[in-house]
Amino acid sequence: MKIAVVAANGKAGKLITNEAVERGLDVTAIVRSENKTKATQVIQKDLFDLTKEDIAEFDVIIDAFGQPDQDKLDQHSKSLALLSDLVSHSDQRLLIIGGAGSLFVDEAHTMRLVDSPDFPEMFKKTALAQTKTLNEIQERNDVLWTFISPAPDFQVDGERTGEYQISDDEVIGTSVSYADYAIAMVDEAIEGNHIQKRFAVFSK
Predict the structure, then answer these.
(1) Domain span holding position 155
(2) Mean pLDDT (whole number) for 54-81
(3) Average pLDDT, stretch 33-54?
(4) Which of 59, 158, 164, 186 is the most buried (most CB within 10 A)?
(5) Measured between alpha carbons, how far is 47 from 94 in angstroms, rounded to an integer?
(6) What is the CATH number of the domain that holds 132?
(7) What predicted TM-score, i.e. pTM, was given to this entire model?
(8) How many domains does the chain contain in total?
């Protein structure tokens, strides 16, 4: 299995890349600038310049792209559309780092986290942009996608416990570390248990 991580220098991308390398997988980091991961195979290219030929050899492409700039949130949709088109009608799988805002807070699935009264206003635009990408990828029957949401409290410096629990669409916990999320992402890359599905990762 050959894995490529897009935006591998990012906070989540770096941990996912390193996790995959440490497990002995064949990993290529796709980065815009100098590689800062443990991957020895590198494609130095902007995500928006990638071509089918660039990623043709990979079985799994992990989309770790994130855009914190509030004026460029449309890049979430644009980048996902591009990557989806590159793997369309192929056996390549596309794993996507999603957001927590689209998770439901009730069993009846009547309220998403982003719509709940206590959701922080400062994160709402980003959460809605990431929710939009989930809606868009769910319409892509031509792509073998998996959308992986973290728990609401996604902890950059959280402990790597080596354990996690998952849900399909509901909030079942409060937090998860980037390190444990990376484990879940690499597990999914290897096992492929959630093709054309979304799941969420929480601390155990």
Answers:
(1) 2-203
(2) 93
(3) 97
(4) 186
(5) 14
(6) 3.40.50.720
(7) 0.96
(8) 1
